[in-house]
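Margin note from the TA: students keep mixing up input and output lines. Inputs are the sequences; the output is the structure of the whole complex. Example:
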Amino acid sequence: GAGVSQSPSNKVTEKGKDVELRCDPISGHTALYWYRQSLGQGLEFLIYFQGNSAPDKSGLPSDRFSAERTGGSVSTLTIQRTQQEDSAVYLCASSLSPFTGQLGWNELFFGPGTRLTVL
Amino acid sequence: GENVEQHPSTLSVQEGDSAVIKCTYSDSASNYFPWYKQELGKRPQLIIDIRSNVGEKKDQRIAVTLNKTAKHFSLHITETQPEDSAVYFCAASKGSASKIIFGSGTRLSIRP
């Protein structure tokens, strides 16, 4: 079946502009994560959505970053007034659920990422 | 919150030798520890995971060990092959309905 998809694949923007990054998780996956990966660096946690629960926003680096998930499916990560240090690959991942007893319920399936470049 | 430290950041081993990557975590409530492999230009993929009720898990040439008392866990790759070259990430989570926090990654290179 279809995996996690993200759009756009590449985004070049000017400092100070706002950007929106989109993630389409695997159908039926209730958990959705956003991570940031700077060049050659690790996977920095940004935000986590689980079903209808309040999202865990503890990883958002500043109030310029926000995310929403509509209808428990598609998610949008918005970065306002972009800065050069925001340049990175933004990865979205989804997983099946909190514990359901099903094999692989907590495996993260990553999307291809959005490469953001802020000039 | 949870903090996961991983080392070494880079590792080069001769083909056929073993490789070991080590991680420590800070939150004693963490009970789920996955490892992901990211090949160049590709997205991370799960290769093995372990839960806190077991101390070791093996899958062919890879194994993970967990020491809950010391709050550290390790990935062992035996008989390394060129296709093992990648960046490996450890992670920790409190399990159901909790975020997964990753370490900083280890770039493993296999020398022919």
